[in-house]
Design a protein that fits this description.
The protein is mainly beta. About 15% of the residues lie in helices and about 50% in strands. The strands form 4 sheets. Strands 2, 3, 4, 6, 9, 12, 13 and 14 form an 8-stranded antiparallel beta sheet that branches. A hairpin with a 2-residue loop joins strand 12 and strand 13. The longest helix is centred in the middle third of the chain and has 16 residues. It comes from Calidifontibacillus erzurumensis. It holds the Pfam family YfkD. This is YfkD-like protein.
Length: about 260
Amino acid sequence: MTFFISLFNFQSYPSAAESTKVNNQSKIKVPDSVLDITKENTYPNPTQDLPYLQPSDLAKKLLETADVPIQNPDLIRILNESTIQTTPTQFGFRATIYLGQWPLSYESTETNINWEYKQANVNKFDNRGGNSPQKIHYIQEDEAVIKGGLTSRINNAEEVQKMMMLTAAKKTELPLAFETVIGQGTKKDRVYNVAPKKLGYLYAYAPAVNEKGKVTFGEVYLEFKGSKVRLKIKNITQQGIGAWIPVQDHLSFKFVTTDTPR
């Protein structure tokens, strides 16, 4: 057998509900106050799509021999790049190859969207001395960098993030990234009216998905018995984990008027 492995006093106007719980039965309804700024954003965010990696025929056969589900795209990629040649004459041949400890899969237990995760901008207009309504619209005053991340320490954090983002993106059908940027000078034409004798504040918030679940870890071995080969998983453990994952190129707006400065 041969084998090769590559391994205040104020008035507020309708805004987004602060959070939305996600389930698998219904499609997410994006609030009217949440706008897509992809075309207007002066900072071109790179696409963070992580398409599901299709296992090769060999990888698929190996994955079917494992006792636990394996979803980690990095581990699947290694299996895809592997070549194993067996011959029936190697009767009685036995070998075990250790591939390392891996996060094998992620199971989501709860997904929520906070439409006002972090404030990205505020525009204001003082119309206390005015006698007629004045218009205000959104313009990004300074570049805003919105970062998410895991809520606790965990081994193989980058691989865990990939699996969590794949799961959250599939459930929400929203463009997600652990970091997104709103460029200075980004504008939206939607107009808000500031009444006479009032101050107007237009707040812009970056939304984010709060993903919670558990990660399954295990030691991965390639086990050879004669001409047969299988994946053997040992020392399986699970760990709870959460993450905040910003929604890319989207902003939630809240317009407030008040008699005194905020």
